[in-house]
Amino acid sequence: ATRRRDELGIDPNRDFPFDQSAGSCMQTVTARTVNEIYRAHLLQLVVTFHGGMQAIGYNWGAYPYWRGVPSRSPDDAAMRDVAAVMSRYAGSGRVNRAPYRYSTMNEIVYPVHGGMEDWGYAASWDTSHVTPCAPKANGGYAAEKTHYGRDAIRAVTILVETSDQKMPPASTLGGEEGVYGAGGPADGHVPRNMRLALASIDLLQPHIELAPSLPARPGEGCLRLEWQVWGAIKVDDTVALWRATPTSAWEEVPFVAAPPSRRKLASAVGLSHFSLA
Prior knowledge:
Distance between the termini: 58 Å
Strand order of the largest sheet: 1-4-2-3
Order of helices and strands: HEEHEHHEHEEEEEE
Shape: globular
Strand content: 15-25%
Number of strands: 10
Number of helices: 5
Helix content: 10-25%
């Protein structure tokens, strides 16, 4: 790929202590900055954006897990589901004929040494491939900063290759109206990846949206409720709970309507809509 952004002749994307020698990691200020962010915050989902092709990649993307046939990470099924949602919500952006392809980085891109994505996913628990760094560049870096506890660095880390060109033409970037107008004239690279990012935020923590209370039907004498579940790839069922006082135990709301009293009205990736009467 052309127009690669290096620091001191080093690619910061490959400057992390995962399948990398002690003297060849944390050499750049960029990698050290990312490391400090991870050390200070327990990150759950990280998305990195790149250019040079169009694809979504997830773990693994490292040589220890590539022996002609790629190995699967312990979270492969979940990561594939997350990547599928990102691809669907991003759409084509009118810059490609189809949404993003998605697979492991070993399959869809290529394996690397010192990759940020595998480090960000597994540095806390796949310790056999992590070596504390001892760089000489930029005044060195304390080795203890690359000693990680089991709960420090274990985020779902997704790589997004956004464009075949490192510097796509301005005419393909899109506009603000394109974020919520997929496929429209203002769609493009930026709206496409804004939608992907919004889907990522939604998936991070499923939540409920309660619709305004609906009037009871004549003769029912009960309250009607509707709610939507957001940020979930699949919702099998939901229940409504209530309690008489803030200190009372929660109880499931009794259904008084004729069966089926709990109806699933609509379903889509990331959204399920329920009604209770």
